[in-house]
Amino acid sequence: MYRRSEALEQGLRPETRHPRRGAGGSLLDLVPDQEAAPPPQDRDIVAPRLPDVAPPAPAAQPGPSIDRQYFPRLHSLASIGIDDVILWLRDGTRWIALALVLCVAGAFAYAVTATPRYTVYTDLVVDPSNLNVVSDDVFISNPQRDAQLLEVESKLRILTSRNVLKRVIDRLKLTDDPEFVKPSPLASVMALFSSGDSKADKELAAVRALSERVEARREERSFVVVLEVWSEEPEKAVTLSDAIVDAFEAELFQSSAESAGRVAQNLNARLDELRRNVTDAERKVEDYRRENGLLSANGELVSNQLSSELNTQVLDAQQRFIQAETRYKQMSAAIAQGQTTSASVFESADMTNLRQQYNALQQQIGSMQLTYGEKHPRLAAARSERATLEAGINQEARRIAERAKADFDRERWALVALRAKADDEQSNVFTDNEAQVHLRDLERDARTKAAIYETHLARAQQITERQQIDTTNIRVISRAMPPNSRSWPPRTSILLIAGAALGLAAGVGIALALGLWSYVRGQRPAAG
User: Which region ranges are annotated with the description Disordered (predicted)?
Assistant: First the structure.
């Protein structure tokens, strides 16, 4: 049993007076005067026992105050002790028991009637850099980490977007699922008076219900995204999670394909104008070449080729002229010096035959001189025959020299003619070169426009093919698995314990509140 302090038993508790400001009293009178409280005494000092002295009677008041009339014991709240609290709890046992029973019953009823939730988790790696299928892709990957995190956050928002949820609803036909679109008993009656689209209302209700069941977050310092989905059935939760992942990948592919399609469409619209520019530029080149006679073969003007060939022919004709002149001069010198029989410059079949006969006859004459002497008639006949052969050799040499002179004259006139023609063609080359300066400008313009057109054409075809390629780098590293237990509500035992704790706390609070009220109102004496 709680025992009051000795100071209180010995009557040493000082009395605190509350002065009134007026006849009617004030709310400040309800607050005890803390300044009048005695200073704390040392525990080792024993206060002397004083005789019991009755407190002085309060001054007469014009009328009863509010606190004395309705709360006669409000000023003595400081004297409440633990024994009073225990007394109040003992008197409020029935309220504690009632609150405990009601809360436990409520917890049990909620555990039995509450709709269960089964939560599944799917882990995905959302790589901000897409697959490098095409070397020059439409989308540029930023290597900065902040930009990559923004890319992942954007894709995270797409994961729970309405487009993805709409795909899941259409695929799984959630508008006909009572878990997402709860049928109303007055739906048929309201449909008669409503002019709205019931299908759109069902889709909107399904989107709202599904969005409440889906949550996605990114793990710190990583590109891993955790998808959280709950449903009333574990298998349905897994199905929803897989369907959301598939719809997410399809949405990303469709988004990139549509972006690439817009770029390809713009390029195709530009190709017509580029094609016309290239055609006009090439037409200007051909018209200018035709007006100035700038014919080309193998990428070179015909005039340049002809001038080059004429220069080559002039060099060959000059070489032949020099050879013919040298040969003719040698022949003329040999004839003038009487060396036709031994000069090698005279070459012909007749000359070769005559020289052979001459040499053979010369050998016979030498033999006859040794055998017969100088006066022999056969030697004279041989000498006469030698003279005849020498005359034939000289005649053949003159004939060969005349032919050499004709070759010399022909080569000289050919050289002169080729030189004149080369000079004329050289002047044409200078004229064509001046015209070719402007022609090169036209050709450069045509080549530039053709290169731009070919680049745009190849790019448009590449982007058109890019629409058919999925380059999104989304990987599922942990598939959703059916949970073993529900995520909400907790187990019945936990709910009962929580209900009991809540009921106990509520009962204790009610008992203390009722006891305090009775004490303040003066309906219950203080515990002795």
Answer: 1-65
Q: Quick one: 151 and 86 in the same domain?
A: no
- The CA distances from residue 294 to 127, 284, 420, 436, in Å, are 60, 13, 22, 8
Position 6 in a domain? no
* Tokens encoding 490: 């907790």
Report the range of poorest mean pLDDT among 42-51, 256-265, 276-285, 367-376: 42-51
Q: Which residues is 475 bridged to in the sheet? A: 125
Angle at 356 between CA 352 and CA 360, to 5 degrees: 170
Q: Which residue has the higher pLDDT, 125 or 351?
A: 125
84 vs 497, which has greater pLDDT? 497
- pTM to 2 decimal places: 0.51
Q: Minimal CA–CA distance to 480: which of 236, 250, 308?
A: 236
Residues across the chain: 528
Task: For residue 190, name the pLDDT band (cuts at 50, 70, 90).
Answer: low
331 contacts 400 by C-beta, under 8 angstroms: yes
Beta strands in 19-165 (DSSP E): 118-126
Helix, strand or coil, per DSSP, at residue 298: coil
Considering the domain architecture, whether residues 364 and 449 belong to the same structural domain is answered as: yes
Packed helices 234-291 and 162-172: angle between N→C axes, nearest 10 degrees: 120
Which residue do the tokens 């004279």 mark?
A: 380
243 and 379 housed in the same domain: no
d(CA 207, CA 161): 10
What's the domain range around 241? Answer: 142-274+471-478
